[in-house]
Amino acid sequence: MRRANRGDGAAFHRFLTLVTPPLRGLIRARGRALPPDQHEDVLQEVLLAIHLKRGSWDGSAPVRPWLYAVARHKVVDAFRRRGQRLHLPLEDLAEVLAAEPGPAPLAARDADRMLGMIDARSAALVRAVRLEERSTEDAAAALGLTPGAARVVLHRAMRRLTDLAGRIK
To answer: Do residues 27 and 50 touch, judged by C-beta distance below 8 A?
Structure first.
């Protein structure tokens, strides 16, 4: 999946080929109350969702819980379309629920992009104080600023970033 997310189409094809049988088994097990002819439809929805949402997978995390979550959501959607309820055992979610929430998958990329839109000194100060959670005094000293000047630069940088974010929406 990592190679596929870097643009390797052949790797993505191999990945889908490898994950299809276990996903098919999961869909059959979780979707027992669905008509058997709908299992393949749900599988196709899962494979399409994997293709469309593969950028949301955190490459530093295992892929299996992410895959199973996508499959579970599609099975639940199939039950909803039929007007049925589905009760999934909590044990199936133990891996996902026990995981500490991490940063948003694209947050670092978005922060870098936004910081690239302001001057380098302001960006360095925002990165140090807001992202790395260093004190204003420490960041000011590292940048050769007084603490008061650093607070002014930080305030203006944050206002500029807010304005830029408003224009991007």
So the answer is: no
Angle, CA 32 vertex, CA 30 and CA 37 arms, to 5°: 110
Predicted pLDDT of residue 103:
59
Give per-residue pLDDT as tens, 43-53. 899 999 898 88
Residue bearing tokens 């039950």: 79
**Can you give the pTM of this predicted structure?**
0.48
Q: Provide the mean pLDDT of the chain.
A: 83
Query: In order of start, what are the domains of the chain with their CATH numbers?
Result: 2-98 (1.10.1740.10), 107-168 (1.10.10.10)
Question: Which structure tokens are listed for 59?
Answer: 């490459």
| AA identity, residue 6 | R
Higher model confidence: residue 102 or residue 115?
115
- Can you read off the two tokens belonging to residue 154? 């930080």
Torsion sign across C-alpha atoms 38, 39, 44, 45 = positive
CA–CA gap between residue 113 and residue 108 (Å, rounded) = 9
**Residue 7 C-beta-side C-alpha neighbours within 13 Å:** 0
